[in-house]
Amino acid sequence: MKExxxxxxxxxxxxxxxxMYEELMAAETRDSVETLAELAGGxxxxxxxxxxxxxxxxxAARGLSVHGIEASQxxxxxxxxxxxxxxxxxxxxxxxxVRVNGTFDLxxxxxxxxxxxxxxxxxxxxxxxxxxxLNADGLFVVETVVPxxxxxxDGQRMKGSWARMDSARFEIAIHDPVVQTVEFQxxxxxxxxxxxxxxxxxxxxxxxxxxxxxxxxxxxxVRWAWWDRSPFTADSKSHxxxxxxxxSSVHRPPA
Length: 255
Ligand SMILES: C[S@@+](CC[C@H](N)C(=O)[O-])C[C@H]1O[C@@H](n2cnc3c(N)ncnc32)[C@H](O)[C@@H]1O
Prior knowledge:
CATH architecture of the largest domain: 3-Layer(aba) Sandwich
Bound molecules: S-adenosylmethionine
Shape: globular
Strand order of the largest sheet: 3-2-1-4-5-11-10
Distance between the termini: 42 Å
Structural class: alpha/beta
Number of domains: 2
CATH topology of the largest domain: Rossmann fold
Strand content: 25-35%
Helix content: 25-40%
């Protein structure tokens, strides 16, 4: 998907992002904020791909100093419309590249967004950029799904959401196992016409993310299956991975 750039997700989704996810993710947001606040230990926090502030605003409401990086002006405009949304400093740019003043006790990248970087090189650069902004005893947290390719047949998957008298919604996904990308197109056909929402992602296995961390001078301290800190197992569908500088004596998270 050549035309899909770092700003595309926001351009396509900023208007409806909160309506799509605020309620759906309420429990997840609460649990993630709880754990991230504990990991921050009262220190300075940086969210990569801060979006409309779903996680950043409740963290700031707990008294933490929260900063952000975000590719999409449209997503940040939505953050700015919210109470206290103007108080969060946000650097517009690519989280794999952009520099922010200062260093942080906690940096986090949640909701599968590491996969929005669509090449392995960009994902590696993102780990380097996070490491560059970490305090000596800082933590970098990545939350994402464990890739699941089980329902792809011949590199393709088609899923329907509804088929009504006057409309249908379905999603087609094309998998490239060589570069680990999936191209999605979500299509709604109705009497009003056809609406298409593309999405493009590069997945990485948990072990590959650990290797990216190593390349950036980080090591994994813990991997949970979810924000409730349940143990990560072979059956886990997602993971919350906490990285620190290799050899650092940071005591968060608790053993
Ligand atoms: C799924 S949303 C997550 C937003 C927010 N972190 C949350 O959890 O609600 C993905 C976000 O990543 C942003 N994004 C995508 N690629 C990016 C990049 N290369 N650099 C910075 N932000 C990026 C999008 O604009 C969007 O705001």
